[in-house]
Structures are given as C-alpha cells and as structure tokens.
Design brief:
single chain; four-stranded mixed β-sheet; alpha+beta; plasmid; HEPN_dom; 8 helices; HEPN domain-containing protein; Four Helix Bundle (Hemerythrin (Met), subunit A)
Length: about 270
C-alpha cells in the first residue's frame, strides 16, 4: 500500500503519459477501522470507475489486506476546481491527508473558504433536493412491497438509501462521490456523524447479510433471475431506511441551523 503499483492501475503504466498524482489517504474510526484512498490522475477520463474496478476488487477481496480500504479516483484538474469552489470534502483531505505515492509534485490549489451565505445556500439546495428524492424512493418502495413487487421494492430501497447518504454528505461537505456502493457511501457518511451508525445494526449476522442484499439490489434486483429477497428482509430494510432518513434529516437540519446563524452574524457585520 506504500506505492501505486502497476497491477492496480494497468491503464496508467506509463508514468509520463498517465501519472498517478498523488494518492492521499485518510484514516477514520468505524466499526472496523479503515482507510479511504483518493487517487488523482492527470486525465479525468482515467478516473472513470471501469479503470479502477480491478483495483477496487483487489482492495476489497485480497486476504493480505486486513484493513478495509475505499478508493476514490478524480482528475487533478477536477479536484483543483473543487478546491477553488470551496468543497469541504477535498479541503479536509488536503489538510489531513498523507501522500502515499507521487509522480507529479505540482501542488494542488489552495481551498477557497465559502462565505457563510454561500455555504448556507449550497447546503440548503443540496438537502432539499436529495432528501426529498430519498423520501420519494422510500414511498415508491413501500408501494412496491404492498403489491408484492419484491425485486422492484429492493431496487427502490437501494435508491432511497443511495439518495439519503449524499443528502448528508452534500449538505455537510458540499461533495458526494458518484457511487452506487452503499457500503462505501455509508462509511463516508458515518465518518461525518457517528449517530448514523444507529441506522444499520451490525450485531446480528442476518442484518449484515440483508444490508449486503440491499447493496446488490441496484444491479441484481433488475437483471438477475437468481436475485431473491424475503419479505422479512424487505420489512427490516424498510424500517432501517426510515430510521436513516430521520437521522439524516436531523443531522442536516442541525448543520443548516449552524450555517444560518453564521450567515446572520456575517450580515450583521456589514
């Protein structure tokens, strides 16, 4: 893990043409301590997920890697733009991250500090859009369950949870990585507020299995003839998704209230 080996990134095997610049890692506490790696590439096209599927699979399944690792890839210019826009997610990584491997020593842009008014406006727009989207998907999944459309219900529940986590991440950090991986999104969100852990109990094996079923539902519930989900699992997943949305709303509204207070203070100084 101390370098960016070619087997993980076969398309970037030419350091001159496709340098990996730099990989930043940030640790965080969860149920099992794990890491996130941000890989910056010279060309945004090389950040597309299919270039990193092999690396992601290896990090996830290699038995020699005991600590869970999440991988996010972005183009360096894209990240510089995010920093210039004041996105807290990348500013935090720039401030707290550790460089693991570096072929291009050009520094990243200095993060712009958003004014209180702009921060409030952006956060409120993110929350209103994403949380309402999550609520609609949850309502649709409830209808699907009532009509015994179990696979559709599982897919819609996946979409509800997939919308809920970005609602929190965007509201709190102004950034959420585009991902359908609920385990990955859950980890990022729980890193921001540990109260979210309550949404998904891990003590019972069946609950862990049911969350994995939900995570697979984005693809398999639609396309696999072998995908199955029990009514018991669906009802439990529905219940926990409701808990998640309530927690997300509570945390986001707390954050919005803080931002509003800061914006009021800023206006009072003018």
């Amino acid at each position: 893990m101390g370098s960016c080996p070619e087997p993980l990134c076969p398309e970037a095997d030419s350091a001159t043409a496709f340098p990996c610049v730099p990989a930043l890692i940030r640790s965080r506490e969860r149920y099992a301590s794990d890491f996130d790696i941000l890989v910056l590439v010279s060309d945004r096209k090389l950040a597309e997920p299919h270039y990193w599927d092999r690396a992601t699979d290896r990090l996830r399944w290699d038995k020699a890697i005991a600590t869970p690792v999440g991988l996010i890839a972005h183009g360096a210019r894209e990240v510089n733009n995010y920093l210039a826009e004041g996105q807290f997610f990348f500013a935090d990584i720039l401030r707290e991250g550790i460089v693991l491997y570096e072929l291009d020593e050009r520094p990243l842009a200095q993060p712009k500090a958003l004014g209180p008014g702009d921060a409030l406006k952006a956060a409120r727009e993110h929350f209103d859009r994403q949380h309402s989207s999550a609520q609609r998907f949850l309502e649709l999944s409830r209808m699907a369950i009532s009509r015994n459309w179990d696979n559709h219900a599982a897919f819609l529940l996946h979409q509800a949870v997939e919308a809920a986590y970005p609602a929190l991440l965007l509201t709190l950090t102004n950034h959420s990585p585009p991902s359908h991986n609920l385990t990955f999104l859950r980890g990022l969100a729980e890193d921001r507020d540990r109260r979210l852990v309550e949404a998904w109990p891990r003590e019972q094996h069946r609950h862990t299995v049911w969350f994995k079923v939900l995570n697979k539902a984005y693809v398999k519930a639609r396309y696999s003839r072998h995908f199955e989900v029990s009514k018991e699992a669906l009802y439990w997943l529905m219940e926990r998704a409701n808990v998640l949305l309530r927690l997300v709303e509570c945390i986001c509204r707390e954050h919005l209230a803080i931002l509003e207070g800061e914006a009021v203070k800023q206006r009072g100084k003018k």
